Structure formats: structure tokens, C-alpha cells
Amino acid sequence: MNPKNFKSTKRFTGFPCTHRQWRAESHCRFVHGYSREFYFEFGAKELTKEGWVVDFGGIKEIKTWLEYTFDHTFLVAQDDPQLETFKKLDSEGVIQLRVLPNPGMEGTAEYVYNEASKILKQLCGDRAWITLVQVSENEKNSAIYNP
């Protein structure tokens, strides 16, 4: 008998934030913003007593973390040469700074996967997990992290 594999999906929308890709030689090196969207796929071998992969009402901690990290924030790479400037703006209340390993879509997808996986593990143990995270900056551009 083959083990069962279940999947469910959840989308979180409406996270306006700014970032820059300081290494880019294009206009992406300038501060610019998007309203980011996050799409998750969850997997499980067994369902909850309610018959779900994950209880979407029970993963509010993930949404809260996404809001803290991406709602009206400024994302900067941890190695950005202007990091001290941005820290000063944050301390003066001009921006809400969040330092990421890589604030681009690909780096954000991996970062969100890692952080949200920690939260889900606290909530579900090993019963459910994240199989994929897609981060969109607009209707045309996105990146997927699929470990």
C-alpha cells in the first residue's frame, strides 16, 4: 500500500514594501516598491481530526510574521553598502527596516520558506510541512523556492 500524500495551498496578499538590489546595474539598484504576495503549498501524510492538511485559521502566526516583515517595510540586503544609512533612517522613524540575506524575489522565497517552516513546525510538529513558497512582486514577476 502506498502512503498517502496530501497537499493544500494558501495565499497571503497585500504586503506593500520597498527594496533595492544594490548589485544590479539596472534601475533595480534604486529603492522601489511592490505589493508582495505569498503562495504556500503544504504537505502531510495524515490529516488533522477535521480532515485538513493544515488549519488555515491556526496558522495566524505565519500571517503575523509576514505582516511584521513585509507590510510597509523597507527590505535591505545584509551586505548593502548603504546599510548604516538605512539603519539611521529606521532609527529616525522614516522607514521600518528589515535586513534580509537577499531581498530579491528568489532570496525572499527561500527566506520566507525557512522562517515559515520554523513557525509551522512549532504548530504542527512533523505532521505537516511546507513544500513550496512562491513570492510575487506583481502579476508578472515571481520566484519559487521548492526545497
Largest sheet: 6 strands, mixed
According to DSSP, the number of beta strands is: 6
Q: Using the coordinates shown, work out and report the CATH topology.
A: Tetrahydropterin Synthase, Chain A
Q: Strand percentage, roughly?
A: 25-35%
Helix segment tally: 3
Mean pLDDT: 95
Domains, number:
1
N→C terminal distance? 26 Å
Shape: elongated
CATH superfamily: 6-pyruvoyl tetrahydropterin synthase/QueD
Write down the CATH class: Alpha Beta
Cα-atom radius of gyration: 17 Å
Tell me the quaternary state: single chain
Secondary structure class reads alpha/beta
Report on the architecture of this protein.
This protein starts with 5 loop residues before the first strand and ends with a strand. It has helices at about 60-70, 85-90, 105-125; strands at about 5-20, 30-45, 75, 95-100, 130-135, 140-145. The protein has about 150 residues and is of the alpha/beta class. The mean pLDDT is about 95. Helix content is about 25%, strand content about 35%. It has a 6-stranded mixed β-sheet with strand order 4-3-1-2-5-6, sandwiched between helices. It has a single domain (about 5-145), classed as Tetrahydropterin Synthase, Chain A. The chain contains 3 helices and 6 strands.
